[in-house]
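Module 6 notes. Inverse folding takes a fixed backbone as the condition and produces residue identities as the prediction. Think of it as a translation problem where the source language is geometry and the target language is the twenty amino acids. Below is one complete input and output pair. Work through it position by position during the lab.
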């Protein structure tokens, strides 16, 4: 039987296919040279079940840090809790407003062709509220991913799993104790709930969740430690938006604001995006634009794959796993 790796080597000769193969090879070369890879996730990659291919990659030590939208962080957990209750809507493009309202009234929250059941969110919410209250009583504050890791460590939570934890990329990141930066964490279902609890006085302070600037400082220290040890770090970006721009900006911040002129740029860059170059769009900006912002060096290996990440990313991850 032909492997994914052999199939790509044989067939991916031109255009986006060649770019995909070149990006996978360059990732492999970076790791072989002692480098590490930082991965960012935009969109709804968790609901697209990217964890099936990303989790093994993390466990294999081929990913060393992540930055995601807050939705991707929580939706991996929702998926772990209640994936069998998710509803697939293949004809989503043909839904009428009335049919959308019917889904809403059933507690089905649609993400493209997939509906997340509201009860999956309520399960996660219940345990997180307890963790927030514990932190409040102890006078402590934590990063969003630290709360998520604490939640996953609770035996009673694991009893709710309805799919193999091996398919959860957050679980794999927890096993490796990787940071998962989530700028704009409030922009998610659980972030909305947290805000409401503070507004109603059921939680005392927004400070129970460490801020975005604290996350950026943590990332700056994470990157600097690798720079000090001469470990090159690559940047693999799925989609665009805050997950990518927040984290890639740590290098220009170190160079321009902390005046560490000898700080190395990102050692590799690849983006999978269906955005096109337009007026001011970060998601559609070509990699060379990042050179002007001190994010990349002129000689940084750079790849731009104009395609659907739910198709392309699993192929690259499988290639790297030798599948």
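Target side of the pair, the amino acids:
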């Amino acid at each position: 039987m032909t492997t994914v790796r052999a199939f790509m080597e044989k067939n991916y000769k031109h255009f986006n296919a060649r770019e995909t193969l070149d990006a996978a090879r360059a990732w492999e070369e970076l790791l072989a040279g002692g480098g590490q890879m930082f991965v960012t996730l935009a969109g709804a990659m968790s609901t697209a079940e990217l964890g099936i291919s990303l989790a093994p990659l993390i466990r294999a030590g081929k990913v060393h840090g992540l930055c995601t939208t807050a939705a991707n962080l929580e939706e991996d957990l929702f998926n772990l809790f209640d994936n069998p209750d998710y509803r697939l809507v293949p004809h989503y493009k043909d839904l009428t407003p009335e049919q959308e309202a019917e889904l809403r009234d059933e507690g089905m929250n649609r993400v493209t062709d997939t509906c997340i059941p509201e009860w999956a969110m309520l399960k996660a919410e219940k345990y997180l509220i307890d963790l927030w209250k514990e932190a409040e009583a102890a006078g402590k504050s934590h990063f969003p991913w630290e709360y998520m890791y604490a939640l996953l460590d609770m035996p009673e939570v694991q009893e709710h799993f309805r799919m193999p934890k091996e398919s959860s990329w957050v679980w794999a990141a927890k096993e490796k104790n990787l940071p998962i930066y989530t700028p704009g964490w409030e922009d998610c279902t659980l972030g909305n709930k947290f805000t409401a609890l503070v507004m109603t006085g059921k939680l005392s302070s927004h400070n129970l969740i460490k801020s975005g600037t604290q996350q950026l400082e943590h990332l700056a220290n994470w990157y600097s430690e690798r720079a000090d040890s001469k470990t090159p770090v690559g940047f693999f970006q799925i989609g665009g938006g805050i997950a990518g721009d927040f984290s890639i900006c740590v290098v220009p911040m170190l160079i321009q604001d902390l005046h560490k002129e000898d700080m190395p740029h990102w050692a590799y860059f690849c983006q999978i995006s269906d955005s096109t170059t337009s007026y001011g769009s970060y998601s559609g900006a070509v990699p060379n634009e990042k050179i002007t912002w001190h994010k990349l060096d002129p000689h940084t290996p750079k790849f731009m794959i104009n395609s659907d990440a739910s198709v392309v990313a699993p192929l690259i991850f499988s290639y790297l796993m030798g599948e």
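Reference fact for the lab report: The radius of gyration is 20 Å.
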